[in-house]
Structures are given as structure tokens and as C-alpha cells.
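Team,

Forwarding the record for the chain on the shared tracking sheet. I've put the sequence and predicted structure together so nobody has to dig through attachments.
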Amino acid sequence: MRTARDTAESSPSIQTVQRAALILDSFTVARPHLSLNEITARLGASKATAHRYTKALRAANLLRYDDRTALYSLGPQVLTLAAAARAALPIVSAAEPYMDRLVQTAGQTVVLSIWDGESPTVVRSVDNTDHLIRISVRVGSRLDLATSAQGRVFCAYLPPEQVPALAKLLRRSPELREDVDWIRAHGLSVNSPSDNGLHTIAAPVFEGDAIIATMAIVGTSVDVPRKADSPLAEALLETTRDLSQRLGNNGVPPAEAG
């Protein structure tokens, strides 16, 4: 693991940026809270130096500190930066017209998610503004790998080494194993559990032969049926295939893409 000592010969300004980046990079989904001792160890500097950097990052709202637990976590400004980074992803701009078209065709909310290394993360959501009651999905939401429709699509098409938790999940759940096989055969997920009366169907988006995102239709369990041959499912598949073709997919059948 690289530490600040590796950059000792860098100029002071560059070293400052690198040290700040090292601190921020220390936080993960598995370890969202760190002590000053843990940050000091990652930084490879003295505790006084680590404290000086954490104080500056707190002033910039990039870190927050809990007096009760004496632990640090990422601050609210990181969410703003993350939202800006997601908005700039090429897949977001490429998918926009396809999602807008699907909203008009399906009359339901359409969501785009990418794989963040541990779970699907929503990067764009388009609501149907014609409905009296609108269903909105917050951009930045992290979806459950095993129970969400988009999570199951990633389970079906990502290389196993990119989903470390998948093998254990498949051993524990015969239903999930069957559904992953079904998704590969049909090219979409229609069997995710309903939450609060809502239902989601999802399909993969490929760049070349690799999955790059998932697109989903979200609506009430009445409006979004669990059928692979429903008009909504067919519209979703047509949209994701068109987008995948634009991104260089050569039409590999879903069963072979996984």
C-alpha cells in the first residue's frame, strides 16, 4: 500500500494534495469510520501531521468528526463531488435520450445504475411527470445486490471476480441461483421482491461485450408486471439493446454475455 513517504521527494504542494487524497481514499463502504491512529498509519506520517490534515479536511467539509466515538467519516462535501462525478460519466450522457424515450413509451420512472465495485449505484433517474403521483429514485442510492432487480442483473453478467460476495450469496439462496440463470436466458430481471408496493424490472447495458450499466423501469406492482413478454419488458429490452449497440455491443445473446 502506498503511503505519503513514497512521495517525500515531491514538491510541498503536490505532497499536500497526495496526503489529503490518501486520507480520503482510506474510507470504504466496509470501513466508513476511522480513528486518528488508523489515518496516521495510512498516511505514514506523525500523529500531529495526520491531525493537521484531518483538521483542514474538516474545515472543507470533506471529513466529519464524532466527538462521542472519536471517529472520522467522510463529510457532506464528498457527496456533492460524487454527484458531480457521476453526472460526468460518459454512460450517463449516452443513456439520456434513450431513457427519456423509454419514459414516454412506458409511462413509468426509468433508472440507470452502474457497478461501484460493491453494489449498483443509481446515476440517473427520470420520473414520469404526467402521473399524479410521481415515483422518484434518488441519484446516489446504493441498491441491494441480492434483492434488487438491478443488483441481480449485475450478478448475472459481471465476471465472478468482480462480485466477491456472489459465491456466498448463491450458496445460501437457491432462488437467487435460479433467478440469475433465468436472467441470463431472458436478458432481464422481472422477479425482484416488491418494496412498498413498487416493482422493478431491469436489463443490462453493454459496452462491447461487457456490462457497463443496468437500466430499470420502476412502478407500482399493478403497473409493472412480472412478465418477460409484457409491453414494458419488451420496451425496456429494445431500449437497452439500442443503447448497447451504440456503445459497440455486437448483439451477443444475453445467455452468452454472462
